[in-house]
Amino acid sequence: RPTLKSPTLSPSSFDPPQPRIGLFALLDPLSLPRGRAVHAVGPGLWKIDNAATARVVREAIDCGYRHFDSACDYGNEVEAGQGLFEAMQSGDIRREDLWVTSKLWNTYHRAEHVRPAIEKSLRDLRLDYLDLYLIHFPISSKFVPFDERYPPGWFTDPDAPNPKVESDPVPIIETWRAMEQLVRDGLVREIGVCNFGTSLLRDLMSQAEIGPAMLQVEMHPYLIQEKLTRFCHESGIGVTAFSPLGAQSYFQLNMAEAKESLLEHETVKQLAQSHSRSPAQILLRWGVQRGTAVVPKTANLQRLKENIAIFDFKLSDEEMSAISGLNRNRRFNDPGEFCESAFNTFFPIYE
């Protein structure tokens, strides 16, 4: 197993490309156990409309982004690949300057399905390798063939009289061994997991030959996950926060109420005013200042520029504590809730 070290934000360890647009964005990198580094801010492609995805990717590259967070389940990897291809073909960016993450979906956990799954993502993204491949959920469900439905989504058979999520009990280590082979075969540089807690991480690390380089979890001031973050930092696992702005992506899914918006919280608004920043910039600055990467979602060019312009100011210790003090342990993305309401299946993973 590789020697692990705690991830740090260290500008001296990486010389990121400067934005093509006049933005001040040092893009402090997050150093990973095997010596590679990922930019601390990257566009999350979840819920980006297919018709807009290629444009968003191109505009993000023009703004200075080099880190892109994708997944099979997002259903827009073909369009993301088009945007990446156009940027590389035009000479705006080289492949080696990009960091592209994708994720293994729940239906592909059996060892024989792992390599075909990443090969499908690579074809869609028009890439020869991924920088990071993550197990999307600690949920293994019944295999759905690619030619039957892709991405397969949550239901095994959405046309059944009472469609459900059908579990297929695959040991995590079986999936992980196949992920490790992807590294050896050169299809991915780093591997990791999403939506895991400390117990699952401990168990995985005790058996892994290649340790997880990254944990991606929901994280924002209403769900700061302090113990999990500390455990990862002390274990040499990088942390990426999805939904770093909190409830925004969940309003239209009826998984959050308008009153839960962190962008409208008085503490965040006051700090935004005192720093002459937007509330979103305060939330993202809090995230990267904790030593995590953040992957905010937006299809708006102005917000793309805004989300990356967070490296020319710093929050004080008191301000960081005030934001962390908003913690409610409020999880918006919880299979224990949405699987029952949306997919007729009670499927808790956190309790």
- Fraction of residues in H or I helices: 25-40%
Q: How do the helices and strands follow one another from N- to C-terminus?
A: EEHEHEHEHEHEHEHHEHHH
Computed over alpha carbons, the radius of gyration is 19 Å
Largest sheet: 7 strands, parallel
What is the SS-derived class? alpha/beta
Provide mean pLDDT, rounded. 91
Poorly predicted ranges (pLDDT <50, ≥5 residues)? 1-26
Task: Note the overall shape.
Answer: globular
Distance between the termini: 30 Å
- How is the largest sheet built, in terms of strand order? 3-4-5-6-7-8-9
Alpha plus pi helix count = 11
Q: Indicate the proportion of strand residues.
A: 5-15%
Question: How many strand elements?
Answer: 9
Oligomer: single chain
Q: How would you characterize the overall build of this protein?
A:
- Helix 1 crosses helix 9 and helix 2 (77-89) crosses helix 3.
- The longest helix has 15 residues, at 111-125.
- 34% of the residues lie in helices and 11% in strands.
- By secondary structure, the chain is α/β, with parallel strands linked by helices.
- 45% of the residues are buried.
- The chain has helices at 50-63, 77-89, 111-125, 172-184, 198-207, 226-235, 266-275, 279-289, 301-308, 317-324, 335-343, and strands at 29-31, 37-39, 67-69, 99-104, 130-135, 188-194, 214-218, 238-242, 293-294.
